Each structure stands twice: as C-alpha cells, then as structure tokens.
Amino acid sequence: EVQLVESGGGLVQPGGSLRLSCAASGFSFNTYNMNWVRQAPGKGLDWVSYISSASTSIYYADSVRGRFTISRDNARTSLYLQMNSLRDEDTAVYYCARGLSRDRSGWYFDSWGQGTLVTVSS
Amino acid sequence: QSALTQPASVSGSPGQSITISCTGTSSDVGGDNYVSWYQQHPGKVPKLMLYDVSNRPSGVPDRFSGSKSGNTASLTISGLQAEDEADYYCSAHRTTPTLGGVFGGGTKVTVL
Lengths: 122, 112
What we know:
The complex is a heterodimer of chains A (122) and B (112).
Chain A: E1 3-7, E2 10-12, E3 18-25, E4 32-39, E5 45-51, E6 58-60, E7 68-73, E8 78-83, E9 92-101, E10 111-112, E11 116-120
Parallel strand pairs in A: 2-11
Antiparallel strand pairs in A: 1-3, 3-8, 4-5, 4-9, 5-6, 7-8, 9-10, 9-11
Chain B: E1 9-12, E2 18-23, E3 35-40, E4 47-50, E5 64-69, E6 72-77, E7 86-94, E8 100-103, E9 107-111
Parallel strand pairs in B: 1-9
Antiparallel strand pairs in B: 2-6, 3-4, 3-7, 5-6, 7-8, 7-9
C-alpha cells in the first residue's frame, strides 16, 4: 500500500522559513516523480512544485519560484520542500502527491498524503 | 499562472447526469491529453478520478467519464448518487510560459 506522510508544518512569521518532509513507503520511491500541492483554507488546489525521479527535472509555480526549493533523498525515500521568505498567502495545507513512474509520460497525481498545515502569521 | 476555468457549482437529482467543464488554453488543456480530475469530500484528501482525459484508475465507477474538445475538457457523472456530492478539480500539464501543472478553481457538485 502506498503511504505518504508529511511533517514539518506549523506556525511561522512572515519572512520566516520552514522545511516540509514527506516520508514515502509501499512503492519504489526512486522510480516515481513527486509533487507538492497546497490548499489554502476554504480554497482550491494549487500545484506548487515537481521533481523527477532522479532529480534531473524540477519545476515550480511562479508564486513560489525563488523562495521554495524541492528536493528528494531516494535512499531515505523522502521528499522535501524548503520554504523561505514565507508570506501570508502561503498559508495552506501542503500535500505530498505521487506523480508518474519514470518510464511513463503524462501528468497526474495518483496518491496523496494527509497533508501538513503551514500557517504564516505574525 | 491563471487557473483553469470551472463552474463554481453544478447540481442534479439522483440518477441524473451532470457535466463539469474545464477550460484552459492551447498551452495546457489543449496542448496534450494530460488532463486529470480529482474528487474531494469535505475534510478529506483529493482522490484521482480520471487521468489522460478519460482513463479511470482501478476502483473508480464507470459512471465517471471524461472527454476533451480543443481547450475544454469535461467530466460527466452519469446516474448521480448521493456519495458523488463533493468538490471536483481538473488539472493539466502546462508547457508555456513555464513547465508545470495547473488546477481548475474547483466545482461543488450538489445532489438534490
């Protein structure tokens, strides 16, 4: 069974930093592309960032580029999101979402973690 | 990056069919067949319902179907059931101006 467990959320002041983690199990983590997707309270889904299975391709949403950094450690089967210069509008539940396996073409998220809440407020 | 356009709400009676549209541009919805749909019940995690426009993952009922024409994709729920009441989001792969993903604003489906 695929399991994705996020951690690292919490309350942070504007301008602060936070590092989110996602522990993966139940599948061959090193063969899957991974994503972060967020959802502000009462709002819709918002794609944040993508990283390919071997970290060779990385993409960001315009709203976070230059402030957030996605990374992964395949040996530890973990995904990370380093968030710097946080703003009020970054307040959201952040989901770790599995993408496609490296040998497939496409774009969708077939497994999601339970999410971790990030609150940016003074 | 603008979100894909979905109607805010759609409603129907049990047994009826409803369709949710998702309009983008030639850089996302119209650029390839990588459109997917997600169902989210209140307080729950999103669930993949369709991928590559019309493919259903294992376990998704066949009353959920998808199609695409030009820059608009659609999700149809046939034989609407009470448990289908939820928020639905479309998603696409965007190629310009930068590579990445994009979601629609979401559609609240109400079963009357």
